[in-house]
Amino acid sequence: MKNRLRVLRAERCWSQAELAERLDVARQSVNAIETGKFDPSLPLAFRIARLFGLKVEEIFDDQVSD
Length: 66
What we know:
By secondary structure, the chain is mainly alpha-helical. It has a two-stranded antiparallel sheet with strand order 1-2. Helix 2 crosses helix 3. The chain is globular, with a radius of gyration of 11 Å.
């Protein structure tokens, strides 16, 4: 799943560790989500969206490009 997490984090000058702390997850989880190796659970996706003040679909895109 494509996402804008890295861009949103960088706009706020947060490290992966800082974002992980705010979300109460491991830094490795943030890295895996940013690189598309892991899709967050629905509760985590909603926590991410609330943290950035956006809708889930504004951060995550489930569309597969051809």
